[in-house]
Amino acid sequence: MAQILPKIQGPAQLRSLDLPDLNLLCSEIREMIIEVVTKNGGHLAPNLGVVELTVALHRVYNSPKDKIIWDVSHQAYPHKILTGRSDRFHTIRTQGGLSGFASRRESPHDSYGAGHASTSISAGVGFAKARDLQGGNERVVVVIGDGALTGGLAFEGLNNLREYPTDITIVLNDNEMSISRNVGGIAHYLSKLRISPAYQTARKNLHSILDRLPRLSDDHIKFLYSLFDKAEDTLAYMTVPTAKGHIFQEMGLLYVGPVDGHNMRELLETLENVKKIRGPVLVHVRTIKGKGLVQAENDATRFHGVSPNTTLDEIPDKASLESKKPVYTDIFANTLIDLAKENRKIIGITAAMPSGTGLSKFQKEFPNRYFDVGIAENHAVVFAAGLACQGFKPVCAVYSTFLQRAYDPVVHDVCLQNLPVVLALDRGGIVGDDGPTHHGVFDLSFLRSIPNIVVMTPKDENEFRHMLKTAVEHSGPVAVRYPRGSVFGVPLDQELRCLPIGKGEILRKGKDLAIFAVGPMVQTALEAAEKLSDMGVDAAVVNARFVKPLDKDLLLSFAENTRRILTLEENALQGGFGSAVMECLSDAESFGVRVARLGIPDAFLEHGTIKALREQCGLTVGDVVKAAFKLCEERQPTLLAEVQRKRLLRPV
Question: What pLDDT was estimated at residue 349?
Answer without folding.
Answer: 96
